[in-house]
Write a structure and sequence with these properties.
By secondary structure, the protein is α/β, with parallel strands linked by helices. It has one domain: NAD(P)-binding Rossmann-like Domain (Rossmann fold). Helix content is 44%, strand content 15%. Strands 3-2-1-4-5-6-7 form a 7-stranded parallel β-sheet, with helices on both faces. α1 crosses α8 and α4 runs parallel beside α5. It is globular and about 50 Å long.
């Protein structure tokens, strides 16, 4: 019988996490490191990258390294991919997590610049990341019957209406579509693709919002609380593990029931 200690052992595997130097991404990185995986953090802020690597290196588990990368710049994505493969020998899982909250404008006030910036980072970014990660996984071929995992951070707003969030909602609805297309197209290579539609978690981004928004959200969430970051550790490990190999093309709400309220 497999022991609890080895059921989710990710030793020898490597995961990329874009935007992994804080918030949801760093929480997922903690779980992966504890499970023995190596973690490549791709993010823009090199100071935050260094702090994240220092924290992760203090945990018993895999190795963490960071790479300066703006997901709006394909050249930087390509460079980060090459460096990650050179350092770790290969990539098994990619969490396309980096994103922005959007312009926050009402529909009558939409600007082309605000809309394009949101879509460039939240939608084009994951697509280009998948391009380079998938190329690597395809060229390498399946290992022990497993090709690779692609997981994107989406949002409950992709299936719900929220004021002053049309660009953000559209960008996340688009990655849901990307997920289904990638799952169908890459299945022949044993590469799976799934989206996690996160609800309300307390992060640096939500900390900037009106405190009344947090109160309103917690009242609307059936479980009456925000998401817990510790729970994201196990969630990330599950998606990187063989136990999720038969799940692909899914857009899963992780929101305390918010999308059904």
């Amino acid at each position: 019988m497999t022991s609890k200690q080895t059921l989710f052992d990710l030793s020898g595997q490597t995961a990329i996490i874009t935007g992994g130097n804080g918030g949801l991404g760093l929480s997922m990185a903690r779980g992966l490191i504890k499970a023995g995986a190596n973690v490549a953090i791709w993010a823009r802020n090199e100071s935050k990258n260094a702090d994240a690597v220092k924290e992760l290196s203090g945990l018993n588990g895999g190795t963490a390294k960071s790479y300066a990368c703006d997901v709006a710049d394909e050249a930087q994505i390509e460079a980060a991919m090459a460096a990650s493969v050179a350092d770790f020998g290969g990539v098994h899982t990619c969490f396309a997590n980096a994103g922005i909250s959007g312009a926050g404008t009402a529909i009558p006030d939409i600007t082309a610049k605000g809309w394009d910036t949101t879509l460039q980072i939240n939608t084009r970014g994951p697509a280009l990341i998948y391009k380079h990660v998938a190329r690597h996984m395809i060229e390498r071929g399946p290992v022990n019957g497993r090709g690779g995992k692609l997981i994107v951070t989406s949002s409950g707003q992709s299936i719900m209406g929220v004021n002053r969030s049309s660009d953000y909602a559209a960008s996340k609805a688009a990655v849901n579509g990307l997920t289904r297309a990638a799952a169908f197209e890459l299945a022949r290579y044993q590469i799976t693709a799934n989206a996690l539609l996160f609800g309300y978690y307390e992060t640096d981004i939500t900390a900037k919002a009106d405190p009344k928004f947090a109160e309103w959200m917690k009242k609307r969430i059936p479980l009456r609380r925000s998401g817990d970051h510790e729970g994201l550790e196990g969630l990330a490990v599950f998606w990187a593990s063989p136990h999720s190999d038969y799940i692909t093309g899914q857009c899963l709400p992780v929101d305390g029931g918010l999308c059904i309220s």
